Amino acid sequence: MNGSSHAESRPAPARDLTTLTTVVTGVDGALTNGWDPGATHGYHGELSAVLIGAEALQAKIGELARAVAADHTSDTPPLLICVLKGAVMFVTDFARALPIPSELEFMAVTSYGSATSSSGVVRILKDLDRDITGRRVIIVEDIIDSGLTLSWLVKNLATRGPSSIEVVALLRKPEAVKVDVDVRYVGFDIPTEFVVGYGLDYAERYRDLPFVGLLGEHMYR
Ligand code: PRP
Predict the structure, then answer these.
(1) Is 201 known to be catalytic?
(2) What is the Cα–Cα distance from 55 to 136, expressed in whole angstroms?
(3) Which of 83, 89, 121 to mutate to test the pocket of ligand 1 (most atoms within 8 A of CB)?
């Protein structure tokens, strides 16, 4: 040994990751011409459109995984912290797409607020199972809406002594963000619409869809 710990992380090289994020403005297909996007999974007439299809999601997850791996400068695997439940689909595909070993941890938090918006007051429902001291922590989030949950989580994890904390988020609603959080890797910037699927729910439904879709207005109004 040369005196330095094998767990020591060197700072990641500064890279411009802005081109990683795809800005989504329109929808793939609407509930027109008789096409019903949710029907293949039994959600008949409930979704109005596909926002991001399954293939586009997987392609983006591959890009995100390669970017995270390219930044990894330590011999110790990054510790992926999945924020349940919404990020569960994302983290499993992301970990499998990473060309380097990683380790997984799960955390469940709940935010006080209305059914459709968070307040920033967060309670831990399930905490990490282990110490994260000295680890490169990567929070894996399905969506950043107001950013309040993530802001709280980053502060909470920072008190536990990791060598670094980064965030990889599949989706972000830039127009809804209320608090600025440094998010290094973002898959898609999406409009402020009611999105479901690929882990995202409305009243616990639709998490099982392999794509991100728009919930029909008649389902929540
Ligand atoms: C969702 C999502 C994020 C959070 C984002 O979780 O998974 O964690 O909301 O919202 P914010 O940026 O406005 O804080 P939710 O609380 O709905 O729980 P779930 O993941 O179990 O669905």
Answers:
(1) no
(2) 29
(3) 83
The 8-class DSSP code of residue 217 comes to G
pLDDT category at 221 given cuts 50, 70, 90 is: confident
Quickly list H helices, the chain.
54-70, 88-97, 148-158
3-state secondary structure of 95: helix
> 216 with 48: CB under 8 angstroms?
yes
Digit-coded pLDDT (tens) for 166-176: 999 999 999 88
3-state secondary structure 23-58: ECCCCCEECCCCCCCCHHHCCCCCEEEEEECHHHHH
At 7, is the pLDDT very low, low, confident or very high (cuts 50, 70, 90)? Answer: very low
CA-based Rg of the chain, rounded to a whole angstrom?
Answer: 18
Residues contacting residue 146 through CB under 8 Å, at least 6 positions apart: 117, 118, 120, 176, 177, 178, 179
Ligand 1 centre to CA of 149 (Å) is 7
Pocket of ligand 1 (CB under 6 A): 83-86, 110-111, 118, 141-150, 201
Supply the residue whose CA is at minimum distance from atom 7 of ligand 1: 86
- With 0-12 / 13-18 / 19 or more C-beta atoms within 10 angstroms meaning exposed / middle / buried, residue 218 is exposed
Q: Three-state DSSP class for 218?
A: helix
Q: What pTM did the predictor assign?
A: 0.89
